[in-house]
């Protein structure tokens, strides 16, 4: 049984958290878009170890997911790409257990293959007429982009600000942008579809990823088991292989 990935915010409205169909129960995991590859893998591992349980994912920008949770969207687990959006869910009463930090991530520059705009550094992102794409400021990758450029005194003028890091990556891989700021894990996952330009200033904005079970989960035990998988040895191994840092 393969874990189900649901892309985009709001796609789970009308889907009950921890629903049951026959002898199969479903737990719903809200997770930052940058976690899509590794969490889908871990979801498959979870299902293999828990016969009769299916993991359904909703991957989107952490700010969108936190907003959905606080508007009452049903879910069992929330994994954010930053502490700020997890704090919003805590403040909204959807998370009462102490969230656990399970991974870290930092930014890199991606360009179309061959780097046709000849980007060699963070300061090159201020080039006139460069079609730069970044995440929106309320999204963790956008907050990190703003932090690194501000600290380096680099002025950028993006042509668009996206709601998730995967949207930024898509603009670059489709040729709609000359460069984008994404997480190192997303760049690694894109492989030959992009050229990666690392920059030392990325160390000034390292995002931490917290995870927690949702307070009103209708399957609290299964939700906590998934959190344990992510934070345990198997989860740490998968995250490291995907390029994430570990706390």
TrEMBL record:
It is found in: Cell membrane. It comes from the Bacteria. It holds the Pfam family SBP_bac_11. It is a lipid-anchor. GO terms for cellular component: plasma membrane. SUPFAM superfamilies: Periplasmic binding protein-like II. GO terms for biological process: molybdate ion transport. Keywords: Cell membrane, Membrane, Metal-binding, Molybdenum, Signal, Transport, Tungsten. Its main location: membrane. Molybdate binds at residues 34, 62, 165, 183. One of its GO terms (molecular function) is metal ion binding. Belongs to the bacterial solute-binding protein ModA family. The complex is composed of two ATP-binding proteins (ModC), two transmembrane proteins (ModB) and a solute-binding protein (ModA). Involved in the transport of molybdenum into the cell. Part of the binding-protein-dependent transport system ModABCD. PANTHER family: MOLYBDATE-BINDING PERIPLASMIC PROTEIN, SULFATE-BINDING PROTEIN. This is Molybdate-binding protein ModA. It comes from Nocardia aurantiaca. The gene is modA.
């Amino acid at each position: 049984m393969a874990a189900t990935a649901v892309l985009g915010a709001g796609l789970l409205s009308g889907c009950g958290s921890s629903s049951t169909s026959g002898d199969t129960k479903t737990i719903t995991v809200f997770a930052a878009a940058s976690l899509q590859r590794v969490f889908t893998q871990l979801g498959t591992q979870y299902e293999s170890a828990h016969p009769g349980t299916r993991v359904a994912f909703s991957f989107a920008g952490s700010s969108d997911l936190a907003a959905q949770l606080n508007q009452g969207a049903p879910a069992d687990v929330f994994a954010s790409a930053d502490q700020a959006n997890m704090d919003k869910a805590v403040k909204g009463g959807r998370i009462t257990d102490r969230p656990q930090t399970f991974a870290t991530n930092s930014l890199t520059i991606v360009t179309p293959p061959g780097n046709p705009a000849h980007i060699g550094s963070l300061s090159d992102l201020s080039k006139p007429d460069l079609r730069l794409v970044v995440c929106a400021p309320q999204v963790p990758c956008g907050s990190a982009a703003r932090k690194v450029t501000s600290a380096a005194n680099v002025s950028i003028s993006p042509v668009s600000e996206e709601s998730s890091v995967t949207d930024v990556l898509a603009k670059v891989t489709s040729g709609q942008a000359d460069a984008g700021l994404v997480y190192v894990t997303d760049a690694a996952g894109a492989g030959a579809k992009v050229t990666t330009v690392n920059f030392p200033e990325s160390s000034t904005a390292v995002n931490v990823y917290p995870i927690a079970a949702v307070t009103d989960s209708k399957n609290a035990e299964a939700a906590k088991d998934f959190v344990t998988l992510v934070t345990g040895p198997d989860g740490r191994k998968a995250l490291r292989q995907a390029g994430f840092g570990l706390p």
